Amino acid sequence: MTTAFDLTTLVRPNIAALNPYSSARDEFKGSAEVYLDANENPYETGLNRYPDPLAAAVKKELEQLKGVPAQQIMLGNGSDEVIDLLFRIFCEPGKDEVITLPPTYGMYQVSADINNVGVKKVPLKAGFVPDVDAILAEANERTKILWLCTPNNPSGNDFPADAMERLVGSFPGIVVIDEAYVDFANRASYTTWLDRFPNLVIMQTFSKAWGLAGIRLGMAFASTAIIQLLNAVKPPYNVNRLTQKAALEALQEKQKQAEEVQTILGQRALMQQHLASLSFVERVYPSSSNFILAKVEDPKATYNYLMGKGIIVRDRSRQYACEGCLRFTVGTPEENERLFRALIEM
Ligand SMILES: *Cc1c(COP(=O)(O)O)cnc(C)c1O
Prior knowledge:
Layout: H1 13-16, H2 24-27, H3 56-66, E1 73-76, H4 79-90, E2 97-100, H5 107-114, E3 118-121, H6 132-138, E4 143-149, H7 161-170, E5 174-178, E6 200-205, E7 218-221, H8 224-233, H9 241-251, H10 254-276, E8 281-284, E9 291-296, H11 299-308, E10 314-315, E11 325-329, H12 333-345
Parallel strand pairs: 2-3, 2-4, 4-5, 5-6
Antiparallel strand pairs: 1-7, 6-7, 8-9, 9-11, 10-11
Helix pairs in contact: 3-9, 4-5
The structure holds pyridoxal-5'-phosphate.
Residues 78-80, 105, 149, 153, 178, 180, 205, 207-208, 213, 218 line the site of pyridoxal-5'-phosphate.
C-alpha cells in the first residue's frame, strides 16, 4: 500500500523554484524600541503596524489545542484561501486535474475553474459514501489533489474511517480532508494521521463551531514541507491584525465554544425529530455537522413559504443526488422553534 511519496514531483516547477517575498517583519523578527523598517505610520492607533505574517501567537494556542506543532500549521484568509493556494501550488493550469466527490462543497469546483484546472467527478455512492475503487481508478500522474469533505457539505454525514484510510494511504497525489464541521462530529480530527501520511492536508476553520465566520480565518495542518509551500505562496499579510486578535480572544474562551457546540448538537437532534415527523418531509439524512439535509415534496414551495415567514434555508435541490432537498442550518433554540412552528403550519 505504501508507495514512496515524493512531494517534489507533485509541486509545480515555478513554485518549487519560487523566491518568496520577504517582508520587513520576516527580515527582523526580534523586538526593538524604534521601527523604521516597514514604511508604516508611526502614530499609534493599535492598527498602524503590519500584522505578524505567520501569526505566531495564534499558532502557539493552536499547537496546544490541536496537538500539532506550529511548523505544521498554516493560517489562511478563510479555508477558501487555503483551497485556492493548494490549486496554485500543485496544479499546472490547463494540464493537471483534481478529483471531487459530488455532492460536495462548491468552492473546490470554483477554485479549479479560476485556476483552469480540470475536475474529475466521482459521485458519492448511496448513503453519500466515497466509492474508493472508482476514485483510485481515476487517479493518474496528472491527478494532483483529491478533495474529501467530511463531515460532507451538503449531505452532512461523516465518511467511514476505513474508506478514508484506504484513500489517504493509496491515492498517489495530495489528499485534502476538509474538516470544517469536525467539531460537530463524533470523532477526533484526522490530524492524528499526519505523521503516517506525508500527502495529507487537513483543513479546519473558525467559521463554524468557533462562531467567527466574519473574521475569515482558516487552518491547514500538514507536513512541514507542505506548510512551507503554503507559507511561501500566500500573500505575506493574509491574516490581518484584527483577525489575529479576535482569534486569540476566542481561544481564551474554549468553554464557551464547547457549550455552544453542545447546545447545537442537542438542537440538531430535536430538528431531526421535528423534520422526520412532517408528512411532506420524505427523508431526513443523518448529520455529523451543524446542518441537516432533508428531502421534501416540493422544495421550491417550501423554500418560498419559509422565506415569507422570514426564515431562509438553503435550496440544494439542484445539487447532484440532492433532488428535492433543502439544507437547514441549526440555529438557536428560539430560531429552531420558529422554524418548527412555521413548518407545522404549512
Ligand atoms: C463553511 C465551509 C468552509 C469554511 O470556509 P471558510 O473560508 O473558512 O469560511 C470550508 N469548507 C466547507 C466544506 C464548508 O462548508
